[in-house]
Amino acid sequence: MCELLGMSANVPTDILFSFTGLMQRGGNTGPHKDGWGIAFYEGRGLRLFQDTKASVDSEVAQLVRRYPIKSEIVIGHIRQANIGRICLVNTHPFVRELWGSNWCFAHNGQLADFHPPKGFYWPVGDTDSEKAFCDMLNRVREAFSGPVEAERLIPVLTRACAEYRKSGVFNCLLSNGDWLFSFCSTKLVEITRKAPFGPARLKDADMSVDFQAVTTPDDVVTVLATEDLTHDETWTSHPSGGWSLWRHGECVVRGQIEEQ
Amino acid sequence: MCELLGMSANVPTDILFSFTGLMQRGGNTGPHKDGWGIAFYEGRGLRLFQDTKASVDSEVAQLVRRYPIKSEIVIGHIRQANIGRICLVNTHPFVRELWGSNWCFAHNGQLADFHPPKGFYWPVGDTDSEKAFCDMLNRVREAFSGPVEAERLIPVLTRACAEYRKSGVFNCLLSNGDWLFSFCSTKLVEITRKAPFGPARLKDADMSVDFQAVTTPDDVVTVLATEDLTHDETWTSHPSGGWSLWRHGECVVRGQIEEQ
Asked: What is the value of pTM for the model shown?
């Protein structure tokens, strides 16, 4: 299995604190040593850093820590390989251009005997995750001929997630740089930080932050993760089948698909 | 204008030496201070590093220098902005997935009043370069329904290049990770390094290398650039309208389109 990290904020925000905690689970406090990746939206652009090494040993991860990038949407992932060997093409997040935007996706779980129909987007690697991402984008392309409001995409995305979940475990994060979509099949937690801000301490590393000192009263930042990253804060678990759409740090709309 | 850097090798090779020279032209020995990018193929995967800062001042460039990556195909670019503001989405190289491969492209030149028909691939940014890349891939998709030998792509690619050249200056590098294609409209030089290897000294930085000491007798490495990067070596200029296809460091086929 793997772990996911997502962020939606209303101001460019540095994910360093959460990233530091997550990276420890990549071979130190967690077993997810088969590569990691993190994608930062910068305007319409996307900066993607990936490595096939355990994140705790990764020089690229050190760079990302030394060079904090501020972003309004971030998708990160640490991998414990199941389907697909350990190599760059099997490392999340995955990216494709659709309608002139960079769409980015990461998956936690695994899908058994998963063979979606071939469409416009083809996987480059061997993972069930990238297959699902390509299939999701192929469905979106089939449903609409050009850019549409995120709200109109929800039925297409949730129907796809519901189907994938029948093949196994499918927790995912998806973004096009404007919004962040999440789906929980088994495990996903969230926390929204806004004024009044308090302190927090990482569970996986000896690091604390007083958000009061590094934010303004108007900041709103939501972090999504597979498991709580901090002490001193209350993370909310998503229900199985729960989906949510985030923009500028706030949940725009959320819902839950019927149980199988 | 901008400068291009390309490499094709028959063994994973470190481009650090050439990269070091090119980076100096990004704000130091050259005026190309509006961002830079370099893409390294790693198997079927692609590592892309980009920055909107002048390469001489770029922390990401320092990382790439500290962390030499070996690759069989590399495409690099330093930018002096003409069309399109300075931001990540306007920074070369550009990447798209086609038929399950990462296609990567960089352009030197500028196309005036360039409006190719809209197709499957859309530009994310505002540059004429990304428009041309998307149009090129759209033409390839229209011409073939799935992966074909590079040799069969040549007529489609060279016809596109011939048309683009009519709108201005179009020197480019294109790869899908298997082969490297180049087109010269005004400026492109090449050098192939193979046994017996000699020493070389950068023109833009105080750095020399004795290739004899860092290679094996079987290594073949070709470097393409906008202008000679070294002293003590003879670089060959491509003719206007000259195109070439490279694999494993060797030129597989080359030709020249008729003059306008």
From this structure: 0.95
Q: Which residues are CB-contacts of B260 (< 8 A; sequence separation ≥ 6)? A: B165, B166
> What is the domain partition of chain A in residue ranges?
3-256
Contact B67 A63 (CB under 8 A): yes
| Highest CATH level, class, for A3-256 | alpha beta
How many Å apart are CA B57 and CA B48, to the nearest integer? 18
- Minimum-distance CB partner of B67 among A59, A67, A91: A59
Q: How close A236 comes to chain B (CA, Å)?
A: 35
The beta-carbon neighbor of A43 closest among B47, B50, B88 is B88
Mean pLDDT of chain A, nearest integer: 92
Least confident of A143-147, B81-85, B221-225: B81-85
Q: Are A74 and A53 in contact (CB under 8 A)?
A: no
As for the ipTM of the complex, it is: 0.93
